[in-house]
Amino acid sequence: MTEPKIILTVNPGSTSTKIAVFADETRLFERKVDHSAADLAPFDTIGDQFQMRKAAIVAALKAEGFDLGTLAAVAGRGGKLPPLARGAYLVNDDMVAFLRHRPIDQHASNLGALIAHDIAEPLGIPSFIYDAVVVDEMEDIARFSGVPELTRRASCHVLNMRAMAIKVLRRDGLRLEDANVVVCHMGGGVTATVISGGRMIDVLTDEEGPFSPERAGRVPCRQLVDLCFSGDYDRKSATKLMRGVGGLVAYLGTNSALEVEARIDAGDAEAELVYRAMAYQIAKGIGELSTVVMGKVDRIVLTGAIAHSKRMADMVSARVAFIAPVEIVPGENELEALAAGTLRVLRGEETPNVFVAPPRARPAAEIRRVEEASRA
Ligand SMILES: Nc1ncnc2c1ncn2[C@@H]1O[C@H](COP(=O)(O)OP(=O)(O)O)[C@@H](O)[C@H]1O
Ligand SMILES: CCCC(=O)OP(=O)(O)O
């Protein structure tokens, strides 16, 4: 009998870091470390959280008495890289450098590959990402933003959305390839997608859709431009306003939907209105994506940690149930999906993709200098 493959999976989310160790398909243990808005406030960028999050993981593994020497691979949640294909990518030097120095965006998932690589490299074992948040299968028509310089790109909770859609359909004897499903993941970030014929043909990213516990979501763009040039913000602080201290944090000072619900239960009318507004925006997003498949939606799936909330699930369902049956599948199985994908690679059933960093875009001023020099 062959020895089981031991895999450490790492899922840095905006409000928590989750890890689990698997022996083949069997989960040996799982740990979640929550990061409150106050814990995260001192960090300017996601990259600055690397040591804090890695230390939390190492401490959790130590508390379990886990021997790192038994590991066959480490898998991290894939972050804000350029658009990728579905499936596995080996974490290589190009990917590490890209995520460290020029990630497309600030998101906790950027730390998935970095932490996985940092743990795996000294052990002489590979690290992988699987179904990264930037898997992009959008159709050409979905890429228009209205400004030619700004192309819409996919970014969502890919791992969990696909896994939950497959689970719901399989239970009803259906296949993802044969259905139209709108999935909304409600966690620290909220994103939604419409999956048609097995592909995520359009996506509501966390910057174009509903606000969420710590993100602003879609905002009035002219006012945003004014805000950026008001003199009160630089690039870092304006970015953080959108991601990190937006949404529930901005309105209510907490990234915890659980805390907001406790305040509502205690009679806080402001908390109730903000939470209801979040549900309203989520429902509008689902409606928007339903038009992509002309309303022919087989299932709407609500998932993520906030789908545990009956209050939120009811508020959203009430507005979208006219479109299609609503399935509530709380939580996420991102760690299982990471382990399952990595196992396929280790067993030789899937070949990992190779990440090649795109060339750096040259700033307009540099291009002008080069052109002027060549004319001279
Ligand atoms: N049972 C629950 N009901 C409502 N909200 C919950 C519940 N459990 C967790 N949450 C909320 O879900 C959000 C975190 O989602 P999660 O997906 O775990 O985070 P991350 O995006 O960091 O991975 C937090 O706002 C948390 O308060
Ligand atoms: C970038 C989309 C994924 C996302 O928002 O994840 P979290 O909810 O974990 O922040």
UniProtKB/TrEMBL annotation:
Catalytic activity: butanoate + ATP = butanoyl phosphate + ADP
Keywords in alphabetical order: ATP-binding, Cytoplasm, Kinase, Nucleotide-binding, Transferase
Localization per record: Cytoplasm
EC assignment: 2.7.2.7
Signal peptide per UniProt: none
Pfam families (alphabetical): Acetate_kinase
GO molecular function term, any single one: butyrate kinase activity
Gene3D superfamilies tied to this protein: 3.30.420.40
UniProt xrefs under PROSITE patterns: ACETATE_KINASE_1, ACETATE_KINASE_2
Family: Belongs to the acetokinase family.
HAMAP family recorded: Butyrate_kinase (MF_00542)
PANTHER family to which the protein is assigned, alphabetical: ACETATE KINASE, BUTYRATE KINASE 2-RELATED
Record-given protein name: Probable butyrate kinase
Highest classification ranks of the organism: Bacteria, Pseudomonadati, Pseudomonadota, Alphaproteobacteria, Hyphomicrobiales
